[in-house]
Amino acid sequence: MDTKITITLDSSLKEAMVKYAAANKQSISSFVSKLINNALQTSRQENTAAKEVRPCCYSMEELSQRVHQGVIDAHQGKGITTDELMKEVEGWQ
């Protein structure tokens, strides 16, 4: 599959890329292709690394304690409403 990508660059960046490619005896299209491939590879590596980190690392005992405390707090009227929670979650993104 051949994908076409359009990128708009300012003139100083274009000049720098042309000079770099010429200094390394590369065509500008070859240089840009390598640049894009490196950026995509870096992005994939970052996504893979992020997926490898477990978001929650509680033991069963710690989780049970948190749930028990949550039930106690709920009976005492502590906590937040669903609307407040949704506003807080929006800030996470």
* Termini separation: 33 Å
The rounded Rg comes to 25 Å
What number is the mean pLDDT?
A: 78
Number of structural domains: 2
User: Structural class of the helix and strand makeup?
Assistant: mainly alpha
Low-confidence segments, ≥5 residues, pLDDT <50? none
Helical content stands at: 55-70%
Query: Rough shape?
Result: elongated
In percent terms, what proportion of residues is strand?
Answer: under 5%
How many E strands?
A: 0
Task: Profile the largest sheet.
Answer: none
Order of helices and strands: HHHH
Task: Give a summary of the structure in a few sentences.
The protein is mostly helical.
Report on the structure:
With 93 residues, this protein is an all-alpha fold. It is 68% helix and 0% strand. The protein has four helices and no strands. The chain has helices at residues 11-23, 28-52, 60-75, 82-90. Helix 1 crosses helix 2. The protein is elongated, with a radius of gyration of 25 Å.
